[in-house]
Amino acid sequence: MSLPMDDQGLIMHWPFDEGEGASALENVSQVRDEIQYVFNQAEFTEPTGPQWRQGVTGSGLLFDGYSTSIVHSVNQGAASGGPESLSALSIGVWVAPRSYDWGYESKLTAIVNRHNREREQGYLLGMFRHGCWSFQVGLEEGGWTEIWSPDGHELPKNEWSYVNGVFDGDQGEIKLYLNGSEIARTSVPRGSRLAEATGTDLLIGKNNHSSQWGGVFNLQMFSGILDELKIYNRALSAEEVAASYRHVLDSAHGGVKPQVQYDEIKLDRTPLLQDRHRPQYHVSPPAHWMNEPHAPIYFGGQYHLFYQHNPLGPFFYHIHWGHWVSKDLVHWRDLPVALAPEKDRLAPDGIWSGSATYDADGLPVLFFTAGNDSASPNQSVALARSTYTRDGDPDLVQWIKHPEPLIVQVKGMGAFGDFRDPFVWKDDDGWYALVGSGIEGGGGAALAFASKDMLNWTYKGPFYQADIQKFPYLGPIWELPVLLPLGTDKQGESKHLLLVSPVGKGADVEVFYWIGRLDKEHLSFIPDREEPELIDVGDFHFTGPSGMVDPKTGRNIVFTIAQGDRTSELEYQSGWAHNAGLPLSVYLRDDGRLGIEPIQELESLRGAKRLSIRDKSLAEANVLLRDVQGDMLEIQVEMEPASATKLGLKVRCTPDGEEETLLYYDFNEAKLLVDRTKTTLHPGEKCRGVQGGKLELLDENLKLHIYLDRSMVEAYANGLKSLTTRVYPSRRDALGLEIWGDGELVIKSMEVWDMHSIWWRSASAVFPTS
């Protein structure tokens, strides 16, 4: 088929057919433009170029949403759209968006632009919230003119669309075309001319005047694939636009609209696998930002776990629900985003934390915090159902939101404006929910609700609130309440575990818990002890709890987020922020205390056993440890103090001791501690100082179960407490281990294993398709 037009007036054309490399050819000028991309130069992983993908013809360029862009210097003049050609401008481009921007400061996510809005100069083709899009121009006669896609003509995610913006000053028209058809037009005065944006470069994938976020990140950057970007200094006719669209379909796709394969556009974790600080057997998003993992549920032989996720970059911004699935709670598979903000009245501004349970038919449902900034308060409890019953979706990829919120906060229902993170469970009598909030003028609280049908809910009052005068560190607001059954104690009394995460002024942002009794009649909680306890005594690295009763084993499983403890600058450079902690089994011990242990399934990650010793002195053990190196290890050690009052293990040690991290127990203070004063020499890393907390061993030997996973360090002491921390050594040889004590001690036993990554093996090998 011959070309539909002779490309008369074509002034710029990026075919994006390179398929590799860090530059893109502009065909008309034959100028190669550098592609900005965070991993062109990389500090913590191997440098790698921008990501190229299958385009509509040849290859296309994948834009990551926060770092990928192209700068093209434009000289004034007719060949560049200068004064002799300002009476008309046409832009055509194939776009496959992966994510939509939230619309901060009402600015467009730029596909291509060369504009100055304040001066009313230049042009901008871009997207806005929920896939709507716009072509905007500044006129020499004065005025900034915008034309927007009408409802029903948004750009769908993960699909190809052909978009055109046409400015015809002589005829006094601006038009939008989608997939070859006109969808909108607006009038400007006949004879209008485009105002030149002097001194401004043409940018692809980045707004000329993007908003700043966190002092580091540029917002309004395109996320997805672009291909065949063309700019003309004349107004294309409707026939020419339609012919261009048909030409691609007929010449390369058998006459049908090209499709995007999900594997081509999804976030790719491959560039991050070599990052020397990114954990490899802790579950994490493929890239970018996560906070709490939540809503664990077991269905159809698989565990599902969701997480708070910004798919646009490694920063807290436009929150979606990411999704993993696993057969064993250890090896996970990345699935598409489960819930995203949409153009509706329910949750247009964020899908925040929640939980999962089963409906009356035993099918999974998700309860989430619906973010709607046009409502007051902007948080309510909403529900989504799986499409499983309709299409047999075994991975529960598709979810449909109930159109209205189920629980809306009113005055007198907790601290007004703070109402989030529903934890829902079901028993034979119906459904129950806890929602994180506070008490007006008081402290944090979990609010209780009950329902007979899962859709209509009755407020039952505060489930539990602590005395903020006695415990000011519990803060004014509680998030992420979790209630799990612990069975009966020695006296035959039924016990439950209540977890909360305080936030707000004066709050200690940790996971606190109480063991106590559930008063089901009044839907309230009576703790055994008024003072709360910590599961983890690290510093802000074990937060955001969620939990489930495992239907396979009856265990209580708790999931948390492990905060990254890094600056925004380092998260930008790394391309990721945060990961989940290891899944924990929590249970009621015979002595009435809470027991915590990493789940047994983690043993499947063990590789070679590097060390196994019994009854050695400190000196003897350290001689044997000289040959044990690694940043992905499992360590079990029992130490008996002789004259030592402080004893523990140094990890991530350089041979000269310049960098090291010390995990230890102080018998005099009864504290489990980590000393990070020598953890890193990197000037930008934040991990410093000594952290820890109370642990009563009651004349037991110290038993440490330690997991090293690059920057992650998790230490479990005697099945009673954990200490989660982060380490980012600057030196690559910070791989050693050393037993430490301030006196004599006996190493009763010590075993060390290499640990495997959960990501290296192919998904088909770990999870064969049915």
Question: Quick recap of the structure?
Answer:
The protein has 770 residues and is mainly beta.
Features of the shown structure:
770 residues, mainly beta, eight-stranded antiparallel beta sheet, 5% helix, disordered C terminus, hydrolase, Glyco_hydro_32_N, EC 3.2.1.26
List the helices and strands and how they pair.
Layout: E1 10-14, E2 23-26, E3 31-36, E4 51-54, E5 59-64, E6 69-72, E7 88-97, E8 109-116, E9 121-127, E10 133-138, E11 144-148, E12 161-168, E13 173-178, E14 181-187, E15 202-204, E16 212-213, E17 217-218, E18 223-232, H1 238-252, H2 262-265, E19 288-299, E20 302-310, E21 320-326, E22 332-339, E23 350-358, E24 364-371, E25 379-386, H3 388-391, E26 399-401, E27 407-408, E28 420-427, E29 430-438, E30 444-451, E31 458-465, E32 477-488, E33 494-503, E34 512-519, E35 524-527, E36 533-534, E37 543-549, E38 556-562, H4 568-574, E39 576-577, E40 579-580, E41 584-588, E42 594-598, E43 606-617, H5 618-625, E44 632-641, E45 646-653, E46 661-666, E47 671-675, E48 690-694, E49 702-709, E50 712-717, E51 721-726, E52 736-741, E53 745-755, H6 763-766
Parallel strand pairs: 19-39
Antiparallel strand pairs: 1-18, 2-3, 3-6, 4-5, 5-18, 6-15, 7-12, 7-18, 8-9, 8-15, 9-10, 10-11, 12-13, 13-14, 16-17, 19-20, 20-21, 21-22, 23-24, 24-25, 25-26, 25-27, 28-29, 29-30, 30-31, 32-33, 33-34, 34-35, 34-36, 37-38, 38-40, 38-41, 41-42, 43-53, 44-49, 44-53, 45-46, 45-52, 46-47, 47-48, ...
Domain LamG-like jellyroll fold: 87-239
InterPro entries: ConA-like_dom_sf, GH32_Enzymes, Glyco_hydro_32, Glyco_hydro_32_C, Glyco_hydro_32_N, Glyco_hydro_beta-prop_sf, LamG-like
Keywords: Disulfide bond, Glycosidase, Hydrolase, Signal
